[in-house]
Amino acid sequence: MYRYDTYDQTLVNERVAQFRGQMERYLAGQISDAEFLPLRVQNGLYIQRYAPMLRIAVPYGMLGSYQLRKLADIASQYDRGYGHFTTRTNIQLNWPKLEEVPDILAELASVQMHSIQTSGNDIRNTTTDQFAGVAKDEVEDPRPWCELIRQWTTFHPEFAYLPRKFKIAMTGASQDRAAIQVHDIGLRLWHNAAGELRVCVLAGGGLGRTPVIGDVVCEDLPWQHLLTYIEAIVRVYNQFGRRDNKFKARIKILVKALGIEEFRRRVEDEWAHLKDGPQTLSSEVVDAVRRHFVDPERRPVSDVAIEQFEALRLSDRAFARFVTNNVTDHKVPGYKAITLSLKRRDYAPGDITAEQMHEVADLADEYSFGKLRVTHEQNLVLSDVPVDRLEELWRRLDELGMANPTVGTLADLICCPGGDYCALANAKSIPIAQAIQARFEDLDFLYDLGPLDLNISGCMNACGHHHVGHIGILGVDKKGEEYYQVSLGGSQGDETSLGKILGPSFYSEDVPGVIDKVLQVYVDQRHAEEPFIDTYRRIGIKPFKEHVYA
Amino acid sequence: MHNDVPNASQSGAQILRKSGRVEANPWHLSLDGDALPNQRPAIVPLALWQASPRSDRLAPLLDSDVELSQELARELRAAPLVAIRFPVFTDGRGYTLARLLRERYALDGEIRAVGDVLIDQLFYMARCGFDAFDLRDDQLIENAIKALDTFSLSYQSVVDIPEPLFTRRLRESAAKRREVDSVPSC
Question: In this protein, which residues make up the domain named Nitrite/sulphite reductase 4Fe-4S (chain A) (predicted)?
């Protein structure tokens, strides 16, 4: 994990002091609400429906156990004892007191954390593959690059007042687990035939009101130019992105308006001036950051232990289910990455209590070198577990209620906070998620359905990524009443696609029944072993429509 | 017709320098694009400035959507100062303009921020190449002076500090190594 040096620490400390001063001036009436707004949101502080909300950054999803413990203590001391992991791999506190936020930021700074640029019209937290550094299909560890991007974006003086928010995602694996095609900038690290590291740069993707899949701006950028090239893109956006209409202000609208060729031409013109400038990366610079992400000293796991693990998998059905769904292969034989499900009965998706944070931190220390990752599916990952300790970990997770063997299934749904918390929401989303989870609890049925992404957003801002759910649910407001629009056929990853709306929207109580009907069509029409998304792509939306609205 | 009083003086009595010094502001700011004001020295809209005889008592005002070019930059380099207007403080184009003028178009003279210029944007403005600030008149000057020292270092290579932090780190650790190496061993 990246560890701050005195410079990083100084900057974060100075940020706390800056915000403390701004808060004092705000409370003293020296800053208006409208002028305080960008200052507070650039520190992750929202004024929500019932209370303030503080969004804390988890840079590219990497979290140390010592940091999780601090988050737990903050949640207990300053909030109501729980937090919520988001699809941007951040964590939100839903009930902090406005005037205490500077103190919370100071606590965060003590464990090298912050809430810088977790909101606002600036460059947000970069997200990446939750299996970065341990994935079997990885070509290049994206974490050092994400850290370089983090530093470059942090307090970038030119880009704090962009037309709209700006999100970057990066993958270094052959399979995209970071949804790079639906980000303002998507980055894919790859090696060319000569074995040289290249970056494929996409721009103009995004969800929200107008979902768009990103276009390739540069297929094979040499890595040295990563920062100057991104700077050129963001500069073109800052100058030419629309500022007259909030709903047309994202970079995707600019890319569409100019066309990708003209957009690329402007970026390349801009880049010609920045290329080979001081922000150009050298191997010394990258290696210095890479040293923060060296592999932990993993003791070797014996072949006997690996065989025992496989044998248990064959003999214990419950363990086998957990392994199939929540355990991911690791680049080192004998090790696995474990996904802890935060999709649990009686909890909102992504929610975790302070007590559980402490317990998970202990497990991370005991089983995974004290390191965790937050996933954009709102789960947690222990990235380095030796298989000879997996059974024990599984049992302990089970006691904690975090061993739900349902990762990647319908029960692992993504959900924004919705109308229960969020001031922007048109409708509640958490009760819909809970109703669906309650209806489809049977594990055999969930496994029979196979991989299925169900994503729920409480408004068209699409924090719940409903456009890229195989089944997407969007809360809409019609004359003050909450309705839900269902879409089918969305997908993230290498074959990203945007869902199509099924038809007229539904009352909340009808949603689980509608999902049931959608699933009936799938079960009836699927070929053997055919996942939902493939069946949908083969038969189209019509049979679903006919059955649901029959 | 001057319904919106566009040629009214919008400039403050004082100007804040990047150094933290506060000076009297002799410059009159006019947004009227049609006619020069009577006052001098005066900052006037770019097109009007371009159409007027050169004078060290007349300076151009750039709107945030102006497109820079080498030709325009050549003209601007001859101006006594260049003002960039923030129509609202959330319009971030002025930051890019200032950086481009400094880094690409080699403008050495004063770049002044005018319009909706608030305390909490000063630090970033200064980093991007602004060196004079005509603050909105409700801004407390003592807080503005303090805001110029918000951060003691920065990650990026931008106008004020061309060396990115990653380069500085390498340079300093190399220097430290040399220091260690030069200690005689016994």
Answer: 119-273, 413-548
A321 contact partners, CB below 8 Å, separation of at least 6: A405, A443, A447
Multiple choice CATH, A134-289, 3.30.413.10, 3.40.50.200, 3.40.50.720, 3.20.20.450: 3.30.413.10
Three-class DSSP category at B24 = strand
Distance CA A33, CA A349 (A): 32
Yes or no, beta carbons of A31 and B120 under 8 Å apart? yes
- What whole-number distance in Å separates Cα of residue A543 and Cα of residue A539? 7
DSSP sequence for B134-182: ---TTS-HHHHHHHTTS-S--SS-BTTB-S-HHHHHHHHHHHHHHHHHH
DSSP characters for A322-343?
HHHHHEEE-SSTTEEEEEEP--
The per-residue pLDDT for range A197-243, each reduced to its tens digit, is 999 999 999 998 889 999 999 999 999 999 999 999 999 999 999 99
Is the CATH number of domain A6-109 3.90.480.20?
A: yes
Q: Which fold has domain A414-548?
A: Sulfite Reductase Hemoprotein; domain 1 (3.30.413)
Domain with CATH 3.90.480.20 in chain A: 6-109, 303-400
Indicate where chain A has its CATH 3.30.413.10 domain(s): 134-289, 414-548
Q: With CB atoms and an 8 Å threshold, state whether B169 touches A5.
A: yes
| Banded pLDDT at B8 (limits 50, 70, 90) | very low
Q: What's the N-to-C CA distance of chain A in angstroms?
A: 54
CATH number, domain A303-400, options 3.40.50.1220, 3.30.70.260, 3.30.450.40, 3.90.480.20 = 3.90.480.20
Higher pLDDT, B182 or A261: A261
- Partner-chain residue, chosen from A10, A121, A281, that has the shortest CB–CB distance to B153: A10
* pLDDT score, position B185: 52
Lookup result for tokens 């694009």: B33
pTM of the model: 0.94
Determine the residue among B96, B131, B176 to mutate to test chain A binding: the one whose Cβ has the most chain A Cβ atoms within 10 Å: B96
Give the span between the Cα atoms of B86 and B90, in whole angstroms: 8
Token digits of residue A277: 């400038």
Provide the CA B159 distance to its chain's centre, in angstroms: 11
What is the least distance, in Å, from the CA of A172 to any CA of chain B?
22
